[in-house]
Amino acid sequence: MGELVLDLLCHADFSGRIRPSREDIGFPAFSAEIAKLRAQNPEGTLLLDAGDAFSTNYWPGLPLVGAMIRSKTDVMTLGNHEFDRGPAFLDSCISACPFPILCANVRRKADSAPVPGTKPWVLLERCGIRIGVLGLTTEYTPYMVEKSAFAPFEMTSAAEAAARHIPAMRAAGADVVVVLTHMPFYQAADGTLTGELPELIDASPAADVWIGGHIPGDCAQVRSGACVVKAGFGGASIAHVRLTLDAASHRILDRSCAVVQTDPNGQADPEITRYIRSVTDPFEPYFREPLGSLNERWRMTLAHESKLGDFLADCLRYGGQTELSYMNTTSACGELLPGEITREELLYCAAFDDEMFTGIITGAQLHALLEAVYEPERFGNNAAIAFSGFHAAVDHTRPGGQKVLSVTRPDGTPIAPDERLSVTVSAYMASGGNDTGAIAGQIAWKPTGRHYHEAVSAYAKSLGVLTVADYPRLHETGEPENNHAPY
């Protein structure tokens, strides 16, 4: 009777990294890899995007939609960063997409309707095979987006959505059911999976393919008869799921999955390269300007203190002209190497270009903030913070809520609970980002009208040679509980 082969190419978190650089593979090489994989099965291949595609600092929105169209994206689910710039921006992006945008567990507060332009699921067809694709977004999204940007929306249960829509896709005739999520999961050395997506899988009706995203790291394994995959981050990798089906019954006979690393030397269609250059070339003089130099290697870490994280927090304090600053480490990445440091290299590490906010924080609130950061469940979702202008001692072997031993000035003088200090944060953290709203909500934040990248560039130029004078400033005993940090 014969067999049919269905190939699913999956990725997440391209995050606007379309320009080739030392850090990023770039869209031309990514699209070349997709084209090479699609050529193996032209009629039976789907390209699925698991979110965090539209929002970036320099060319957000329609230029990125244009890239997705040129890669022949078939379907996308929303990631948390799709909401970064508010509903009008999101609507403009969704409206420009000729392919379906999915999101089954975010709705408008005003009328309980789905995000405009989205569907909970879609039924696609390749080679006569009907593929139902359900889209879900991490339930942590409200804590990963600046509060006002997500204010018109609310999360609903992903498990309830899966329980409702997976059977509906089967009833509508889906031969293959795919759950395309912007949800994290973590793979232990023995292959065990933990995190939001595996918990959803265990609580949901059976599907054939589960796709994750949201955090770095690649994974491809068959788990309880289903392919579970996660790949992407700037197009550096692609998850490839292959399903072999009986041609008559469309029953799945065999399934496999793997992660393909993108060839950085892949030759893209010249039209695609021209398109990307038309978007990125205007920024080249800005990127290439030297901002200073560095005498050592700095590498960002999320769960522990690093000189790069301290420097970026110093930039924030410099920009706000305050006594203290703090920032989420997940808003930074990468490394700086000894030698000349260009704006491109430094701002890549600084990542998000939020407006800076200032306020007054008490010693008691500062202590409570640190306790909140190191609460195990919250730490597992967010990792640490980087800070400037104070020191802290933390004992990770103590119970949650009792881990912070001291909060002092750099000279060791304790910061009293009722002491009031000026502090600078990003708009994201001022809105209670990383689930710190209980503390951030107590502070009367004031917008500065200035953005973080302006402060980073100015501080680097003021130093000439990049240094961190106050290091270390976090004194730890033991290892943080529930640490999933990928770097």
From TrEMBL:
This is Bifunctional UDP-sugar hydrolase/5'-nucleotidase. The keyword Signal applies. The lineage of its organism: Bacteria, Bacillati, Bacillota, Clostridia, Eubacteriales. Residues 303-434 form the 5'-Nucleotidase C-terminal domain. Signal peptide: none annotated. It comes from Faecousia intestinalis. Residues 26-216 form the Calcineurin-like phosphoesterase domain. Belongs to the 5'-nucleotidase family. One of its GO terms (molecular function) is hydrolase activity. The keyword Hydrolase applies. Keywords: Hydrolase, Nucleotide-binding, Signal.
